[in-house]
Amino acid sequence: MEPLLLLAFAAILITCVLSGHSMFIALFAGWVMFFGYGLHKGKSVKQMLLYCKNGIAVVRTVLITFMLIGMLTAVWRSCGAIAYIVYEASALCSPQSMIIVTFLLCCLVSFLIGTAFGSAATIGVICITMANSMGVPILYTGGAMLAGVYFGDRCSPVSTSCLLVSTLTHTDQLDNIKRMFKTAAIPFILTCIIYLVLGTQVHASGVSNEARTLLAQNYVMSPVTMLPVIAVLIFALCRVNVKLTLAISTAIGILVTVFVQGFSVSVIPQLLFSGFHPANADLTQIMGGGGLISMFNVIGIVCISSSFSGMFDGTGFLDNIQHLIIQLSEKISPFAAILLVSLFAGTIACNQSLAIMLTSQICGPLEDDESQFASDLENTAVVTAPMIPWSIADAVPLVTVGAPSLCILTAVYLFLVPTCNLLAQNLSFSKVKLWIHA
C-alpha cells in the first residue's frame, strides 16, 4: 500500500504543477491519503492529529525564523542594502563576464538574504535583464542564476533550508555551515572555471546602464546602507543566535530606511507585513517583495510537509522503504543511498522542504554522526530539488527571471556538489570496505 500511496501522491503533485493549480491542493490531497492510511492501520483520529501536531512542533523554531526572514528581506530592500551591492557590482560588468558575474552576485545576495526565491526576484532579475540587453544567451545566465541562488540557500546563516536541516538533525547551524563551505570548495572553483570558459564563447557587445540609473534615482547610495548586512555577518561569526541576529539586522535596517532613505516611521508596520512596494513600477519589478506575507506560502508548505513527517513517523509508513535503503547503503555507501533517496523525494515532493524532510526521515539510520548526516543532506536534498523540472524549487526562480527550464543543464554547481562529494565519499567507503575484508 505504501508505494501505491506515494505514487498516487506524486501523480497528484505533478498534475497540479503541470496544470498550474495550487500546490496546496496536492498537499491537502496527500494529507487526506496519509491520514486515511493511519486510520486504516488502526490509529484513532486523535492519534493522527497528535502525530501531525508533533511533526509541526519539530519545525516550530523554523517557522518563527521564516517570519523574521520575511521582515528582514523587506527591510534590506527598503534601506538600500541590496541596491547598493547591485549598483557597485554592475559597473564592472561586460558581456563576456556576465555569466560568471551573474553566478557570483547571486551567490553573494543569496548568502546575505538566505532565500533562493528572494534572490532570484532581486539580483536574479537584474542580472538577467542586464545580460539580455547585452545579447548574452539566457541559457547560460539562467543556469548561472539558478546555481547562484541555491549557493546561499544551502549555506547562509539566514537560510530556511539550512535551518531546517540543522533542526531535523539536532546539530549546530554554524558548525554545519563550516562543513558546507569545505565540501563545496572544489565544486565552487570548478563552477567558476566553467562559467569563465563559457564567457569566452559569448560574442556580444553593449552595456546596459538602465538598472544602475534606476537604482541611483530612487535610493541614497551610501556605504551606510550596508550596516544591516554587516551586522548579520559579524553576529554569525560571533555565533549569536540566528533569530536574535535577524531581529537586530532588521532593527538596524529600519533605522537606515528612516534616517538615510527618508521613509516615514508610519510606513514601517506595513513594510514589515506586506513587503517593500515602491511607487515606481520599474523599481517594484526589480526590488519589490519581502515582508511577512511573502513567507505565508512557504510556511504553509512546511506546516503540511512537517505534518506528513509526523504521520509517517507515528504510523511507520516509511519503515519498509527505510529497510531497503539501509541494505542498499551497505553496498553503494551511505552518501550514494542518501543521494538516490533525495532524487526520489524531490521527484514526488515537488518542493524542497518536503524533499529534505522525507530524505531525513528515510535515511536517518544511515549515518551515526549527526553532523555528517546534516552535511550529506545539504549536499543532496537541498541541491537536487532544483534539478527536478516540475519542482517549484526550480520553476519559481526560472519563471521569475523569464528563463526556460533547459537552464537546469547549465546550473553546473548544483550537479557538481553531489557529484564531487559522491566521488570523495565513495572512495573513502571503498577503502573502509577493503580494510574490513582484509
UniProtKB/TrEMBL annotation:
It comes from the Bacteria. Residues 148-401 form the Na+/H+ antiporter NhaC-like C-terminal domain. One of its GO terms (molecular function) is antiporter activity. It is a multi-pass membrane protein. InterPro entries: Na/H_Antiport_NhaC-like_C, NhaC_Na-H+_Antiporter. Its main location: membrane. Keywords: Antiport, Cell membrane, Membrane, Transmembrane, Transmembrane helix, Transport. It is found in: Cell membrane. The chain crosses the membrane at residues 6-37, 58-87, 99-128, 184-204, 216-237, 244-272, 292-312, 332-358, 403-424. GO terms for cellular component: plasma membrane. Belongs to the NhaC Na(+)/H(+) (TC 2.A.35) antiporter family. This is Na+:H+ antiporter, NhaC family.
